[in-house]
Amino acid sequence: MPRIALATYDPRPEPSNDRDLPVLVERLRAAGAWADAVPWDDPAVDWASYDLTVIRSTWDYSWRAEEFAAWLERCGKATRLANPVDVVRWNADKRYLGLLAAAGVPTVPTRYLAPGESADLPGTGEYVLKPASGAGARYAARYTPAEHETAVRHLERMHAEGLTAMVQPYMRGIDAEGERALQFFGGELLHASRKQAVLAPGTPYDADRNPHPGLTPWRPTEAELAVAHAALAAVPGGPDLLYARVDLVDGEDGEPRLMELELVEPNLFLWLHPGSLPRVVRAILAAATAA
Q: Is 209 helix (H, G, I), strand (E, B) or coil?
């Protein structure tokens, strides 16, 4: 009987902020595993007692980056961790987008402004300002050059918290075609979804927002699949990933561009794609029992 921990920040059976978590625990147990939803930051947890720890919904990790990094090291030494520690550490800092772009992956153009650097913000066109370490659209906002002073205050707030900022052009294709999320599990495409634009004009960077508005199933195009596979192939070391989510938007030419590559704790959206649940369960069991 494999022992599996699903690491989360919200282990409640119902209602859980991770809608998939209670169902996934139940199905793993029904398949013969000893499965638990476990808070990642619980000091009483014996991670070595598990054959596999799957990072599922540690959705507060970007607020607590140093604590999370220390937990990764401890957990990775105690048991098998999915995704692997090196991958999670690399992916937790969105400066990886620059590395993927350098490797030839079609990517949303991105600049980075570290603490101490001047507010070199665009003078033309709409743009997005957000932290290089973040989740759920945290501290993200959409600006025009006329809102320069507001954007500077946003940048100063991030820098004051030690965060490196990302500056990206606002991809207008999101307003028409939305953002597509291609989910991979066990090395194969699991399913895909599309959501509407998250960032509305004039919304403050610290406002509460729905990170997945208007989510619907999606059938990815060949061009989208090509970008997704290119991004996954460019991950350093060619690791054996248990899960990945590739977020895509259309560029000005109508071709897909990588927005983010989620290898830490992507929402699986199994509630939207219930038919994918058996494949996820099989892949987790296989990872837990692998030699």
A: coil
pLDDT tens for 42-71 read: 999 999 999 999 999 999 998 888 999 999
Q: Where are the alpha helices (DSSP H) in 108-221?
A: 148-160, 173-177
Q: Tell whether omega for the bond before 15 is within 30 degrees of 0, i.e. cis.
A: yes
Please tell me whether residue 191 adopts helix, strand or coil conformation: strand
Q: What residues contact 228, with CB distance under 8 A and at least 6 apart?
A: 182, 184, 189, 220, 246, 248
**Backbone phi, then psi, for 268, in 5-degree steps?**
-85, -20
Catalytic residues, which ones? 219, 245, 262
83: preceding bond cis by omega (within 30 degrees):
yes
pTM above 0.85, yes or no: yes
Q: Are 196 and 178 in contact (CB under 8 A)?
A: yes
Q: How many CB atoms lie within 10 A of CB 288?
A: 24
